[in-house]
Amino acid sequence: MIINITRNNISNLNWEDFENLKGDEIEETAKQILSIMSLKEKARKMAGDQSMLHAIGMLIHYNKNPISAGRIEQLNIPGIQFTDGPRGIVLNNSTCFPVSMARGATWDIDLEERIGNAIGIEAKAQGANFFGGICINLLRHPAWGRAQETYGEDPHLLGEMGSALLKGVQRHIMACAKHYACNSVENTRFKINVDIDERVLREVYLPHFKKCVNNGVASIMSAYNRVNGKYCGHNEHLLRQILKEDWNFQGFLVTDFVFGIRNGLKAIKAGVDIEMPFKWKMHPKKIVKWVNQGKISEELINESVLRILKQEIRFAKKDNPELYNLDKIASEEHTELALEAARKSIVLLKNVGNLLPLKKESIKKIAVVGKLADMENIGDKGSSRLYPPYVITPLQGIKKALGDSIEVVYNEGKSLTKTKEITKDADIVVIVVGFTWKQEGENMTFAGGDRDTLSLSEDDENLILTLSESCDRCIVVLEGGSAIITERWRQNVPVIIMAWYPGIEGGTAIADIILGNINPSGKLPTVFPKSSEQLPFFDSSTLEIKYDYYHGYKLMDKRGFEPAFPFGYGLSYNTYEYKNLRINKSEIKKGEKIEISFDITNKGDLNGDEIVQLYIGYENSSVDRPKKELKGFTRVNLESQETKKVSLNLDSNDLAYYNTETKQWVVEQIKHIIYVGPSSRASDLLEASFQIS
Ligand code: BGC
Hints:
This protein is an alpha/beta fold. It folds into 3 domains: 19-326, Alpha-Beta Barrel (TIM Barrel), CATH 3.20.20.300; 337-559, Glycoside hydrolase family 3 C-terminal domain (Rossmann fold, 3-Layer(aba) Sandwich), CATH 3.40.50.1700; 576-692, Immunoglobulins (Immunoglobulin-like, Sandwich).
């Protein structure tokens, strides 16, 4: 359906009728609308609709209602209605899922897409059409305050999880991937300059953004920081050259909020399409003036507006009151999904003597202690803050699961003497400790920001050390947004569980894991180091930082370090045996694919999910390359004693390095090593090889 759009008939247009338009029709319709717009109207598409006065309302309850941009009522153009994420929809009282880092630990792209679907429904039911919560910044160092908002340290994992989320969300509304690029220091985010070589940029910090672009993401948000001397929002190389030209991105680029750009003219030239959320540096009046003065061409404005209109048309949808209904907000269906995610995200780090799952018959009394044991701890209080209708704490979850059968006692753990007293005759002591919004998160004036320490607080550590002196059945449950250093107390306790910020149903999931209702399956999406010496340089006050090739498991491999818990690691109540690694060809040509298969057996007594991982190494490469890098993974469900054949496909194009001289991606004609197994730890992996000729 393409009608002839004029200024006279546009107000009668029903955007819902655009629902089924495809490729060329979308383009044609967008061009027609563009052609009837005045310069002033076009300029209005390129800024948030709020005046600076709205800032006050936003400070009271940020993003309680959608934030609008480019709404032009006289032309009946709806504009974008923004809501933030990523742990759910920040508007009103939506479902709070576990944070992205937790979801990274599920390695479950099907689940992530279903979460995206739920997020899209909750957003649209509340009047939003644009979700700003596909955060895929790479976790270079665990002290980064916003670690919780992303999926981990590996570009492949980030690209897969981010793409899954956007596919789910984009069944309903537009999604935006952020923060483009190299945004991984919080305290100095408005100023810091990241010095980075083109190869590192393309191979380490950008592939996940490219994957989201290939998967049709409607929008990208530029980051606050500078890259190679230029603010991301002024960075023509990042925005115009790489994103819009090299990757052929068809969507539109929005700035990060308020301080995303310093100079509107530079931003437009570099490739910014919308300044969020206020009319400020790219105030429509200024844009009109710049065009009239010849400082920018109207073509540049047309290009931006066409991009925005195309996406608005692509996502125009008929209303569906049954689907987009306020009853869906934190509905049972969605909170069940949050529970599934929390259950799958919990990582069992240590389980000496198979203390877990608890054998209820042998327990009369459980002590649940620690400052987080009865706290609603769902993540930071920055722009991704949610206000869910309820949160199940670990104490509530454990109590509910046990009913009256076992006595549960609780103490916050502030006084060591008191806590010792109440735990004295307990059969099991569950200690829930870790981080909160006060120590890590988006940088708010009095809280959040980058973490000061990677270890637990001294109080938390002393609590563990003291209680473990008299009880050899202590279960430590950790909460936080990324890696925690456990050296001071790790050997003193038999069980350690990483629960992240587990969302609305977190306490239920923690109880399910401890009691064995659920077999743990989460695996670390980032290395847990023994000390900060095993990590790249990080300084939260620095204004200049060099990002080089190595961090996380690749740095561990390069330097021969042994972490406390490796990337990809996580225990189950079963053991899984990997066998018979085979490949369908021992030699392939550039551009061809290869199939890697192996058998996996569940040697335990319980049904379980195992996350299998595929890494690739390069022999005799002409450039410096990591010992191995993640190139595939999948979750496999196995009954007790069941064996399954698992097949993973590898595309040789994904094995290229970026040649900075020729500006080409190069697949090398060398021997490639295949590693398959349950984690990145060398001793866990089966090995084979193939040649690219
Ligand atoms: C954050 C973004 C967020 C934006 C709007 C900024 O402070 O950096 O991640 O999307 O606010 O809420």
